[in-house]
């Protein structure tokens, strides 16, 4: 398995016209960690994810992924963004058509990777369904499978579970943690939920506007194994309390 990607950001700023959304941001993210970005609407979380993914460029400053070379990452958005006229299997296969680095992979190897990704998100047997035949949770799992198909070493997730009901969200959180453990990839996750941040993350970085200034950077004192028992434990409650206090201060 290839190494997980680390991120080094140094004095980075991003402006859109005269508006500076990110100002002088410096932060490092350790390979293989699960880091959540929290902050009020409009503080620059999605902009930062897009910069990390190379979908946009910083105005000034440095952003480096290590090891450098192949930038293997997956991106999952709040909406599953599935093509309605394509089956589950075809939707998960899309990166092979769109990503230059993956175009050379043979058809049998592609099929195997798609099957493997669907297995990872527990969607075996749903290959030939169309998006309208799927629940919200299943659509999100297809979206995650599509991100996993290229074996990302960094997974960027922008409020992926925000539109799901509470039960499905809990289920998806546990599945994601399982994936994080088995895939040994770095995850940078954006959410508005303090509860979700506490449950999923090893580290929570809070950003505030203007300028996406880091207002808090906290390593969570929780065991790596998260489960139902932990959700209702005192240790979890005290982490959630601390995060809430930091968020409100
Ligand atoms: N391409 C763009 N052109 C102009 N302004 C932009 C662009 N992208 C983002 N912005 C502005 O940057 C600011 C930060 O947006 P961003 O989407 O990063 O915030 P966010 O923290 O992710 O918000 P939310 O939690 O609501 O998703 C907003 O004021 C937004 O209008």
UniProtKB/TrEMBL annotation:
Recorded superkingdom: Bacteria
Keyword Transcription tagged: no
Organism: Bdellovibrio reynosensis
Database matches in Pfam families: ABC_tran (PF00005)
Gene3D superfamilies documented for this protein: P-loop containing nucleotide triphosphate hydrolases
SMART domains from the UniProt entry: AAA
Alphabetical list of PROSITE patterns matching this protein: ABC_TRANSPORTER_1, ABC_TRANSPORTER_2
InterPro entries linked to this entry: AAA+_ATPase, ABC_transporter-like_ATP-bd, ABC_transporter-like_CS, ABC_transporter_ATP-bind, P-loop_NTPase
Name the record gives this protein: ABC transporter ATP-binding protein
């Amino acid at each position: 398995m290839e190494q997980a990607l680390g991120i080094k950001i140094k004095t980075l700023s991003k402006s859109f016209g005269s508006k500076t959304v990110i100002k002088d941001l410096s932060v490092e993210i350790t390979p293989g960690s699960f880091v959540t970005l929290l902050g009020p609407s409009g503080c620059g979380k999605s902009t930062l994810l897009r910069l990390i993914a190379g979908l946009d460029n910083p105005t000034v400053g440095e952003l480096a992924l290590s090891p450098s070379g192949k930038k293997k990452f997956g991106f999952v958005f709040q909406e599953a963004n599935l093509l309605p006229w394509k089956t589950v299997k075809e939707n998960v296969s899309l990166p092979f058509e769109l990503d230059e680095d993956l175009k050379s992979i043979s058809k049998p190897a592609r099929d195997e990777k798609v099957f493997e990704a669907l297995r990872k998100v527990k969607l075996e047997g749903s290959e030939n369904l169309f998006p309208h035949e799927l629940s919200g949770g299943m659509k999100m799992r297809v979206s995650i499978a599509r991100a996993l198909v290229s074996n990302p070493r960094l997974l960027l997730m922008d409020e992926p579970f925000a539109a799901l009901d509470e039960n499905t969200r809990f289920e998806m959180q546990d599945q994601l943690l399982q994936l994080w453990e088995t895939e040994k990839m770095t995850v940078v996750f954006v959410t508005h939920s303090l509860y979700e941040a506490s449950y999923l993350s090893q580290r929570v970085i809070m950003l505030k506007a203007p300028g996406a200034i880091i207002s808090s950077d906290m390593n969570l004192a929780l065991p790596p194994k998260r489960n139902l028992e932990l959700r209702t434990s005192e240790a979890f409650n005290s982490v959630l309390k601390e995060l809430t206090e930091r968020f409100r201060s």
